[in-house]
Every structure is written in structure tokens, then in C-alpha cells.
Amino acid sequence: MKQESLANTGEPWRVGVLFSRTGFMAIIEETQVHGTLIAIEEINERGGVNGRELVPVIYDPASENALFRAYAKRMIVEDQLSTIFGCYTSSSRKAVLPIVERLNCLLWYPTLYEGFEYSPNVIYTGAAPNQNSVALCQFLTEKYGSRFYLIGSDYVYPRESNRVMRELLSKRGGHVVGERYVGLRASRRDFVPVLNEIRDLSPDVIFSTVVGEATVSLYQAYADFGFDPRITPIASLTTTEAEIRAMGADVGEGHITAAPYFEGLPGVTNDAFVKRYKRRFGEDQSTNMCVEAAYFQVHLFARALEHANSLDPEILRPMVLGSTYDAPQGTVSIDAGCGHAKLWSRIGRANGRGQFDVLQESSSLVPPDPFLTGTGFGRLAPA
């Protein structure tokens, strides 16, 4: 029986959860599973949605794009699901996108990405470039200098993000002194020639779009070379508390990340979120921007579902657009025009406890501007 026909029954609402719990991306995607499950548990503890329980149908695509594609199709065709929470990398999102569009389902994507995309079948709750790259470039050129070295994992997100950063840097009178890409499974050894080149070129900043386990290898290799983050930091959009924990707080200390959310943000809502997360998954586990987006998007979904009382995307999506939620990062909302989230922009520096000290933050929500038309740019103020 299709879920759309169950609106007036007590049957549970079934939703798909599609993140890697194994493979080289599990270091961050497993935390997105955690964020999703905590939100579902909270909703069910309050009685579900219109008296009906939310039930996750979980698949592990094991960091393989082919499995993302296969499992998305299975969820929709065999499991008859019409809502999927999932994907971290842009390559996995792009593997799933044609399927959710062709079969008219709704994908909730809780990861920062390179922008320049719109789909009526996707709700984008991670940061677009104007919500992180713009602020980061401004901060780095003012505090460290304008000579950047770009290092990324070899797939669509890093290449496109580096293209954006190159253009932003050029507008500020800076330039890229070097650019390298490594495999998604890059080891510590693979970064040796990269760091040798960095030592020779002496950039002011290393801008990293390395993801997954390779992030740990990059920062550890950096430490092996004896570089000083006070002079030449690694600045990133993708390095979170999860990667810092894996590499060691002493290795990550001093490096920079731009994100809408950090675990250490003050406020009652975030305090409750962090405490629940640690009770559920361990006191040594930290939240991060990807956990937080995975968490709040489920709550946005549940509020829309309460009004729509249907999982039919044609009925549900209009209820999502323009909606708001008091998230751990602060109040967020979904822009009605492009289906992307309005988020906060923050710059943090990793400290010796494996957390981030917020150095600057926006004074209000930054509207999404995924195509960088110039309408969503905002300046940061000292925290």
C-alpha cells in the first residue's frame, strides 16, 4: 500500500535514511545518521506526527556512489518511500538526484555544497557558498594574507568550491599559488609531495576541501612537517569536530573552519541538543554542523508533515517552503524561492579541547544565494 493512501490511518510514516555508516566517508556520515535518529526519537516521544510514529528505513551505501544510486531507487520503488534524508558528498547527491526527480520524491540534503544547483525535489539545509566561502575568504585575507594554496579531494565539490574561492580571492586582490587534488582514500603518505610544494611556495593560507578520512591524514601530515597554524593555517569548509576528534585535538588546534554551527555555541536550545546527543552516543562524541543540519531538517519535515498530513511531495513541499525552526545554531528557515536554508555564518578556530572558538559571526541569518548573484552576501562581526 502506498504511503500517500494512508493519510487517515494509524500506519507509521516511513522515511528513508541514506548515509554511509562504513567506508571512508563514515567518519562524518555516521554522525548525520545520529542527528537524523535523535530528531526522529524526539518527534516520536511527543507522539509522532498527527498521532503516527516516524519510522526510518536505513541503508548503508558504504561510501560508494553506485550504492547511493541503487539504494535510492530501492527505497522509492520497492520500499515505496517518498522522502529520503541523505547524502554527504556532492557526487553522491548527483548520483541520487536524477532518480528522485524522475520518480518525484523529496531528498533532504544536510551538507554544505558548491552551489549552482536547484531542484524542486531537493531541500538543501547545508550552507551554500555565500554562507561560508564568502565569509571565510574575507576573514582569511584580512587576518593572514592573500596568497592561497588550494588542496581538495578529487571530485565535484572540491573542484567547484576551489573555483568559487579562486574568484572570490581574485576580487580581493589575492591569488592562488598552487592547487592540488588527491584521491578520496588519500593516506598520510599521499600528502607528502603536496606539503613539500607548500613549503616551497610559502602561501599565507592552505584552503582545504579534503573530505572524509583523508582530512585526518592531511592535518596529521601537516603536523609532521612542523608547520605552524598561527602563521599558515589550514582553513576549511569541511573540517568539523568529528574530523578533529579523529586526528587529535593537538593536531587540529589553531586551524580554521567556516560553518553555520559549532558544538560550543551558547544557548538553551544548543545545550539541550548537545546533552541529548552525548547521552545517546557517548560523552566523548561531539556534534558538528552536519549533525545539526541532519537534525533540524527532520524537525522541519515533521512540522510540514503535520500540516500536509501527506508524504506526497506535491502536497508536502509547499508546506516546507518558508517554514522556520529554532535550531541549535539559531532560528533557521527555508527560502521559498530556491529551497535552500537561511543559515548563520560563523568562523571558528579549533582549540586544544577539540572544539571551536567562534571568532566572527553574522549578525543575522544569511539568505541563501546558491548561484552567487550577489544578493546574499553578508559581512561578519566579531563574536
Outline of this structure?
The protein is of the alpha/beta class. The chain has helices at 26-45, 65-77, 90-102, 129-143, 156-171, 192-201, 213-225, 241-247, 249-252, 268-281, 289-308, 313-320; strands at residues 13-18, 54-59, 83-86, 106-109, 122-124, 147-153, 175-182, 205-209, 234-236, 256-259, 324-327, 330-334, 341-342, 346-350, 356-361, 381-382.
Written overview of the protein:
The protein is of the alpha/beta class. It has two domains: 3-127 and 266-342, Rossmann fold (3-Layer(aba) Sandwich); 129-264 and 345-382, 3-Layer(aba) Sandwich (Rossmann fold), CATH 3.40.50.2300. Helices cover 40% and strands 19% of the residues. It contains twelve helices and 16 strands. Strands 7-6-8-9-10-14-15-16 form an eight-stranded mixed sheet, with helices on both faces. Helix 7 (213-225) crosses helix 8 (241-247). The termini are far apart.
Supply the key terms.
single chain, alpha/beta, Rossmann fold, 2 domains, 8-stranded mixed beta sheet, 5-stranded parallel beta sheet, 12 helices
Order of helices and strands: EHEHEHEEHEHEHEHEHHEHHHEEEEEE
> What would you report as the Rg, rounded to the nearest angstrom?
20 Å
At the fourth CATH level, what is the homologous superfamily of the largest domain? Response regulator
* Fraction of residues in β-strands: 15-25%
Put simply, the count of helices is 12
